[in-house]
Amino acid sequence: MVDTYKRTSNPMMHRPVVKPELVKWMRESQTQLSGEITEVLSFAKNNNIPVIPHETVLYFQMLLSLLRPKRILEIGTAIGFSALVMAQASPEAEIVTIDRNPEMIELAKENLSKYDHRQQIILKEGDAQEVLTELSGDFDIIFMDSAKSKYVEFLPRAMELLAPNGVILMDDIFQAGEILIPIMEIKRNQRALERGLRRLFDEVFDNPKYLTSVLPLGDGLLMIKRAE
Description:
alpha/beta, 228 residues, globular, 8 helices, seven-stranded mixed β-sheet
């Protein structure tokens, strides 16, 4: 068992907002993954490590095939599953991924060494806020799947790094519907996360600077791009 997720796990992982029957249908009826990537997925499932669900994987495959990104930035590597999914879908893209958890970093290094055959993925170790200041150039896609309370803090720098027609994707923004609950009714240890998400929504929704779209994939996916 991986120690990082031994005692605790994401409480939202198994609480989909969409009807469970529809989630099951989406995950079972669409094209299944095959090949080496399934070994990484099996490890995640066996060790209770949260990774993007199957419907989000397929959406990423579709989106990347349409956008054909040259550079992708990921905040929140975990064991490298989503980075490998994106590398598989965009074989010509450079992917920079950031993580600060030592245990996840070691597991990601193992997986990238084993499965990143084209050596597309660059793993940056450290606090994302600091690493973001060190990056330069344009990224066509920026995917955030890390501390949800920090999304709003990462946003300004992410916008600076975003290519003119680029897209930011933020995962797990529904929190199984808890974003609809008054903040004082939420468990104390979850309130910082919820406050961060609500600050994010206040910033990007109904703001003429941004185009936004919320997709009911997994635990909610928020897309953001510059308004034309």
